Amino acid sequence: MNSIIEEKRSLHEERDRVEQAIVNEMLSKKTGHRDKLESEHRQKALLDRYMKCSKDLLALYESEADQMCKSKSKTNSSVFSEFYLALRDIKEFYSKHSNEQVVTLASEFDEIEAARQIALGVKTKQQKEGIRDTAQGNPQDDDIDESLDAESLDREGEIGRLTRGLPTTDLVDIVDTPNIAAPIVTRVEKQIEFTDEEGYGRYLDLTKCHEAFLQVVKRETNKPNYLTFLDKFDHFNDLDREYRLSSAYKTYIEMMLEYFRGFCRRAKPLLDYQDLEDKVNEKFLQQWKDRTIPGWFNDSDRTISNDTQMVDLESFKSCDELMELGLECLKKELQVRGLKCGGTLEERAKRLWSVRGKSANEIDDTLRAGSITTKKGKKRSAINPFHIASIESKLSMYSEYFNDQRQATIENVQRKQARTAEERNESDDEISDIDDEDNNQDEVIYNPKNLPLGWDGKPIPYWLYKLHGLNLTFTCEICGNATYKGPKTFQRHFAEWRHAHGMRCLGIPNTAHFANITNIQDAINLWDKLKSERQKDKSQPLNEEEYEDSQGNVVNKKTYEDLKRQGLL
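Now predict its structure.
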């Protein structure tokens, strides 16, 4: 009992320490892309360790009832004999390995924390000394007392192993193993491997997949280049069905799927891509059953799927009962399941009976429609459309998820193609220094004159600052006293939403008449003046309508009516 309890206590402690290590890793500041990616890999390693401890704990709790039953059946003499046997084994072990250094969970996780801080560039003198002492060992701890505390040996439940009567060689193998808990940081650095084209997870490297795709369309005259391939590799329906059912195409999409899985493990370590694939596969199976996947089924196939109800093969007890359905019914059933539908009544019944109780993946390819017979008479299975369509659905999911990396790859390839050979070599040197620049992003940039930053994140030269007039500041009262630096920015803001909104609030249209006007009162006065001028320009019937008297004189309407009232006409 004590051994099981000690193992559970040790695993619970390890779970707590791993959980705290994950929290510390998540709260630590990451300055660049490399730091963030390495931190995610360290979190993944710690999470895997946490899950392993949880599984071991679950197994211990499930076996606890059996152990309790066995312990109740034992007599007191057997319990004491096992105790003294375990005590003897412990003494013998420590008499042979008296100078072995004990690695506890506390020291192990302290070492992991120190290595993590060093990886993030927070190395201090105390950490250096601590790691040096851990590597060299402490010579003052050579004498180990036989009455060692149980906590010093709780790693992986060594005492529990001994008390259960296991041979001491198991414990010797564990202690002799150099550094039981190797730093997770070291393991992570070995796991992350990217090609030069991938830029440490920033871009995709599909050059080999492009070469495999060229083998698929080798009979075509216009073969797509790498840029076109990157843009349209997920447009599967653009290819003819003949190409999609070839062995070269199967090799190509399997290579694509394997690459995206590997890239996901390296660039997105915390993403459960298997769960995503399961969800996509579940949706795909329903669409395949309904025959609604574009590019694989036509209208007649959908009609067969909707009008024909599949027979439950489990309800038939023998092949002879299937033969009673008749030739036409067996043919429809074979067509619905995508199997060969030819042959005699007996052959069709046997073919349908052979798939009884099997899923779509378990059906032999030689039974499917389209299998090929060679000249020697041997049957060679054709490409399974179900397998091809399943991989295509997963690739569509990956292409959508990694769309940002895909667009960045296209831009990177276009940028490289527009450069000369010397510029490409210089850009390769710059890319090798990107991570060093990312690690220095948290440093304060020396900018005493508060100059604006350029494309490289550094202040622009002062002469350029003066040339563009960025030292001049303009304030616009209509925009809520917003300030604009430089005449270009100031002139541009009159057509922007902020100034247009301010003019709309004043009830004034934002026309060219109000250009360079920033004061509210000036804008109102100009608007009143424009309204008065427009009022004057309006048509006035009394002045514009013309009348002619009896003598042929032409006067306006007002004058004509006045003369008429006076009787002078």
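The chain has five domains: 2-191, 207-296+388-401, 299-383, 462-536, 542-569.
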